[in-house]
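2 proteins. here.
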Amino acid sequence: MDIVLMEFLNNLCMFIVFYFSIQWVEDIGGVESLGNKLLKRGKNEKLPVFTPPKQTVEALLESGYSLLREQQLIMETKLSKEYMKNIDD
């Protein structure tokens, strides 16, 4: 497998895990209650369980190509330039 493709897949995997980690935090009550859930639980209370999503190489490639198509569309339509035009003011 091409080194660039392997690096891309690795980055995509990290993004997916990060996304689902954020979702997990929301599922257990948000950032505000994260400390209480993890540190101030009762003796017999179990920690929340985080189950990372199972991904196939094909699904990761499909997601990656979708992101590339979106980025290409943005660059072609210059949406990013239009969006950022007032930032330097």
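next one coming up
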Amino acid sequence: MISFDDLEKNRDTGSLIAYLKDSSRLYLSEAGKLASICDQALPVKPSSFEKMKEILVEMSQLLSNGKIMSSIEQILSEAKMNASEKIGDAHFGVWKRATERGRKVFNSFIDLSAKIKNDNHILPMIRVTRQTSQLLKKSKEDFFKINLFLRHMYLMVITVAKGASIFPHCLKRNIVVSPKSKNALLFLENVAHTLSGFQNEFQTEFKNYVEAFKGGRIDHVEFTKGSLPAYEDLKDIFIQFLLLLSEMNYFVTGDLPEKDIEILAKAFVRESVDL
């Protein structure tokens, strides 16, 4: 990223503003792609999956809304700042770590995209079988895998929603927002509110799926043959997004990144599911 190289070299507010513009554009692009791939990874049935897919499609479309980026650019362009003002080492360190996370996300996307391009059977990653969940109560392996996959997906939705919530505060910590940018800032806050609503809706459908499976009311689902390597790439992207959120949260609140990651990691690696 050229703007980060300039930031590393100059370490001033002008370079930081250019960096924030470029990194915001890249983040929105990657987050939108991630939501789209998650949508394609799920089958249409059962109905809970269909509703999850609808949420992911709406989420991807929202993140692709050009008004988000134009609002960010307006806020940064109208900021009342001295472009030559230097930023401290600790401040720079946050953006250096965030850039490293972003590069890992980008590289993981390249790997995943190559797998999908070379094998048109990867998506969707899940298929419905003819057997019912009630007949497979003694074998929890497939349900555990799908449950964990959906948990990863849900945490991705949380990460993007909370990232959108934190970002306006992150801007305020970096720049002096001009009164002329009031409506642009309000728009970003409304986007964060909408994404938070998607998070709540996805959580509801995830719970509905688990309860329906436990009650034997839906068909059994399993990963398609050959999709697990791509899923590992997808899981790595989820984790890198979580780490990126942690850096943003650290900058705004001062909470140590490790604390956030430890909490989120526990949800990622749960090894038992009560049926």
